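Self-study notes.
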Amino acid sequence: MRLSLYHFDTGVQTIGGNRVVYDVERGAARFGAASVDGPALVWQLDHDEVDAEGALLSRFVQLDPYASWVVRCDRIDFPRGAVVPAHTHPGPAILYVLHGEVEVEADGRASFFGPGGAWFESGPDAVLTRASSHLGASCVRALVLPAEWAGKRPVRFVEGAAAEDAGETVAVLLEHAIALPR
């Protein structure tokens, strides 16, 4: 499986398929076929070749081709100085900064992202996120999750931090079930 993110400044029209389309001006997400006249983000889920045993091979996650999955699009708002402690997710995600600044620590390295910046999270690898101390931040993300995570908050804190300690607000914009091909 490959999860890709595309940014369109002047609009986009999709014809369906495993895509999440986010209308930046309206703050709304749709799955599959959509038309947006202004700035838009499109996450696309592509399937790689299937091996001789029928198992779907993935660069990021080993998927069961008979399982059902959920694609979710969330908006995450961070108050100034908010810290999301080291955490993992049950599936991969790509996040995009709408406004503000965030620092992301993963694999012992820190990266900084401002408006238009994006990063990939594999899911099982721990990530720590901090909003700038002088600006709040807003991000939008698309995640691919096992079906049992539908309707649940897809985060596991590594160091036992309580969810109340995170400081961010997450709004689920879209959750859509998908089945991967056999």
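Second protein, same conventions, sequence then structure:
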Amino acid sequence: MNNANDEYKKACTQVLEVLKYIDKKEYNKIPNIVIMMLNDFCDKSYKYVIDGEKSFEEVELSETAKAILANIYTDYLVPQEQKDEIRKQEDLKRYNIELEKRNKYNPDNIFKNKKSR
């Protein structure tokens, strides 16, 4: 088994543990298929326990677990108005990245800085 696969399995275990602490009403918004997939992929031998004394910000999670939780949050838990705002921000970010690439790799500009012989 490779490290990336192990990391993902541990992240799924962490996510399942975090989800135990969210409000039941919010938890029920997450499709069963998502929970089933997390259960299928989790590392059954990895023991991850959240210290109930710590705030969510203090809980140590892998970057992969944070990414999975962020996706669950934006896909299923965020109100539609906030989802629209997040999508706008993501679209703007993608647009700026593409604009930067276009300016950097524009074929019309590639040869401008070349010295003629």
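Instructor comment on the second fold: Residues 1-77 form one domain.
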